[in-house]
Amino acid sequence: MTESKIYDTLKNYGFLITPYCSFGLTETPSIDFFPVALKIESEKVVHKSNFGAVKLNINSMEALERAKDEIIANVRAKEVLLDATDRFIATQMVSGIELYVGLVDDDIFGKTIVFGMGGVFLELYKDVCYIDIYADEVEIQRAIGLTKISKVFEGFRSFDFTIDTAVAFIRRVQNFAKANPDIIELDFNPVILTKEGLKIADARIKKGEPKLEKLGTLRENRPPFFTNQRVVLIGASSDPTKVGYSIAKNSLKYGGELFFVNAKGGELFGKKLYTSIAHIEGDIDTAVIMIPSNTVIESIKELIPRNLRNLIIISAGFKETGDNESEQLIATLSNEHNFNVIGPNCLGYLNGAENLNLTFGIDGLKNGNLALLSQSGAVLSALMDKAYDAGVGFSHLVSCGNMVDLDFAEMIDMLNREETCKSISIYAEGIQNGKEFLRAIRKSQKKIYIFKTGKSAQSKKAAFSHTGNLSGNYAMFKGLIESVGAKIEENIEALLFNPSNEVNNILIVTNAGGPATILTDYIIDQGKTLYTLSKDELDALNEVLPSNWSKNNPVDIIGDAMANRYEKTLDVVSKFEGVDLIYLLVTPQCMTDTLAIVQLCERDWGKKIYPILLGGHEMEEAKNYLRSRQKLFFKTLQSATSFL
Amino acid sequence: MTESKIYDTLKNYGFLITPYCSFGLTETPSIDFFPVALKIESEKVVHKSNFGAVKLNINSMEALERAKDEIIANVRAKEVLLDATDRFIATQMVSGIELYVGLVDDDIFGKTIVFGMGGVFLELYKDVCYIDIYADEVEIQRAIGLTKISKVFEGFRSFDFTIDTAVAFIRRVQNFAKANPDIIELDFNPVILTKEGLKIADARIKKGEPKLEKLGTLRENRPPFFTNQRVVLIGASSDPTKVGYSIAKNSLKYGGELFFVNAKGGELFGKKLYTSIAHIEGDIDTAVIMIPSNTVIESIKELIPRNLRNLIIISAGFKETGDNESEQLIATLSNEHNFNVIGPNCLGYLNGAENLNLTFGIDGLKNGNLALLSQSGAVLSALMDKAYDAGVGFSHLVSCGNMVDLDFAEMIDMLNREETCKSISIYAEGIQNGKEFLRAIRKSQKKIYIFKTGKSAQSKKAAFSHTGNLSGNYAMFKGLIESVGAKIEENIEALLFNPSNEVNNILIVTNAGGPATILTDYIIDQGKTLYTLSKDELDALNEVLPSNWSKNNPVDIIGDAMANRYEKTLDVVSKFEGVDLIYLLVTPQCMTDTLAIVQLCERDWGKKIYPILLGGHEMEEAKNYLRSRQKLFFKTLQSATSFL
Fold first, then answer.
1. A517 and B463 in contact by Cβ < 8 A?
2. Residues B240-261: tens digit of each pLDDT
3. Which of B149, B455, B520 has its CB closest to that of A521?
4. How confident is the model over A305-329, as pLDDT tens digits?
5. Contact at CB, B615 and A554, closer than 8 angstroms
6. What are the start-end ranges of the H helices in A231-295?
7. What's the structural domain count of chain A?
8. Do B465 and A518 touch (CB under 8 A)?
9. Are residues A585 and A604 in the same domain?
10. B557 and B592, same structural domain?
11. Does some domain include residue A548?
12. What pTM did the predictor assign?
């Protein structure tokens, strides 16, 4: 499409275009919008600049005539024969704030709009956001707000543009893209921000075969995965080095009916080992498979007639070792017979409220309100260990494995129907169906936190070889996910401590100035603020602290502070209404009674208190004390703040 | 100064200015550089825009005449009486790449040039660097290279500007600033990048009283601090809760002459406690003072006649509690009598080669080549603990305390004369004399690593109340320090592990894919690269690994890997010449023999190997093993990479 044809089309969709005029090679147009750029419009001239077929900053009709002659001469010199189909286009050179609006057809997320700072430095500053073509106004505004250039909508340097101008433009691009599904690339650069709206000053459009967009293919009739009754462990083993032993042991606290199967028979943990599924009577709604991969399909076929609803395949040896065929068969069976599959090649599944631990991770985790989905068993296992130490509880844990069946979108939908789940954390390496994923997050009533690997080309490759899923462009992933309202975490442990997102105003109590200063920087880096003490609050602290305390937050109660000064301080600061979180920073000074200080944290102060113990050996006793009580504490300033 | 006068002045210094023309209110100039902006030049019109006294995009003489009339009418409407001293200035409106060049007179660093992306979005993108007015060409180039806009000098979008153009311009600004010390602010925005050089299109200059620049006030005649012979501990104490006890205990390994003083007399650790300094015969070159603050001055006066060279004042109770007067007196004495002071209010001093530990931190640190200077005792103490665990050795440790005498610049100079010191790490909260600091780093033969707090307004305030020194603008600090060749660390522990800056190509050996993918992202985030395996290297690994290994770096040797597979892998990869560092990632799988795996790290593989143990309780034995041997290991992926 020539530039003027693109502009004509765009005008039909209501887009504003900066003034332009297309005219024949021998025509003399009447132009009243100088300065202009003059360009040839010819399919024979692909790289206009290289052909000397672009002239800028033309200020008058005389200059325009000269420029026409020069361009024709330049093109002739390149031995191109121009004819009656070739034309000129003169476009007004507008100065103003240059924006960029583009459309890409992404492998993972399909048609996606890119908006941000435009002009020649677009790629240099990459100040852009990503917007789904199905995004509503709220999402569009949220996305735009993630760019720096959006400050021009907030009074930056007295600009008084409103964000509505930009939103209206993006709505128009959405409609244009939906009406023209064959447009797979679109570049408006620059788009000039004016009072009347955004005006396109240059446009490029590419048509082609659009990528499939699965939006709407939701399998609504699936049984709820997170409800289990009669559970069978296939491959329960008395060999303590086997996964089948660990899961059987972890499963024992389950209140529902539980059956162990092992071809060898016998007993395990006082329970009968059935030699075959056939010997168990009645329905089997949930089964865990831990047998060699070549016998898995056979077992599934035996389970199907038993009204199987949920299947967790622990066994490895499928896609990750090249066996795509068996995985395909499992997927087909699950769709035909309407049961859910987790795995294969996974760590298992845990349902807190049901006391059902079908993982070979650590046992004894607390029940809680957090559901955690992980695409890596090793990462899940490390997070479970950390959660155990810190006393974090879960409603559900899912080790996704090769994800042959249920995807993140479906699990988010299902978890939204589970009362015990209040928030959802996801460790993701690759995403299969981006549009569905966005839809599920958009619809979710529960807050969602996502840590995603695959930022760099190298880790994308590693993730692909590990999960077989594409990682995509991280910036786009982050932008889209944030636009639909989930939070992207930059630190893996934030998946456990995410409730701290309600934390804004932080107070530090410390016995040393230096570390508190570093901690302050880390807190501000995370976008949180240090609480400002009021006059009354300062007075209250003056009453209990020595005269040389810092008179400021961080509340430095001086190196000779012992537990009773910490206690008096907590007595006062825990009553400060505006404080959401207190860091209790302890460094070993000569007389510091660290154990007595950390014991203070066991009291209910009505506030979240995070102890940070900075010392080494002198602090082992206090650390062991906290560990043994599954109390969260931190050993470095960075780890204490990385999840804020 | 009016705009045209500024331009006239700048021209005299060889600056290129975009065409301009200044003319009387009734004059008709002859202008041949349209389009122009027309502005009034009058001291009566301060905010030109608000007065309607600026007209843009004027394309012809007729339009200029109209604009003149409109401006005069607008100004009259504001009831300003224009007279013969008032003029117009027409300046060419140039399009092109807009740069910014400014000069500020900073409280800490004095006259400093700011260079970067210019135009209206300067403050939004803050893509600028900082250049000392004494910087040479190498420093200027290094600084410019820190900006994104510098890509236009590296062929970005076929721009073919050379960096020499920018360097020459900055040299000119340096000369201009040195020749005009009363210029305390300068704003060239925009400066247009052209083939002929940088052309100033708008300029603002502010004159005033320049801030003092101490460059050149170096106290060259000071005795070397880092050489000690006869050492006296004043306030050595037999009370184990006292600092005087801890330091006396730590000092015992010293090979030189060592004396303890305590007014009560007696014995400590088998050594005599002198009741007074007077009873010790001969010179006392180094003294540590650990007595109450009100008796410190008296002791110093007693020490002066004994040829005192180095004084370490541990005692607190000076500036930090409001006693500036005593500190001032100590400073005066040290200058008059030519001795060095560290402190007061500090943790002490350690000289590795002399086996002299005069700190109340941990004892038993290894000797090494790293000197560490810290402005916080608590931070130093935590770093010493970490160093002990990780087996990091030191040539020197200095707890700077209130820094009444020696500053960082002088210590850097002195450490450059110490053979045992190969690199210098600095934890800084506030800087006193920026120009001296830059000079010392510029001159240093030893690589310097700096962690600086005070990024945010709140931590600046905290640092100020803690050290009494200004923190300054963090971006400027970072920019200047990097321009003179030191490295700014973003993680405090990087001060210990900085030798890893020679590390570029990294290889990961892992028994789990997920964590290795995260680790890859962290490594790339830090600007390092994952080593690419050659065909031969892949073949060599194929020989020792099961067929389903990752065939890629990260080298995923699969979950069932035991120590002997790790060993075979290390046998192969340790011979890969291009690899600078190997991460040995271990996650607990059913059969993982972690202890045997980490024992592999004790062997000399000819490469740096960092073990990362991701599991919880199952790994305690291996962790304790490494700890007891003072072997570095990591428990999180982030901590393992944060110092890269």
1. yes
2. 889 999 999 999 999 999 999 9
3. B455
4. 999 999 999 999 898 888 889 999 9
5. no
6. 243-251
7. 4
8. no
9. yes
10. yes
11. yes
12. 0.91
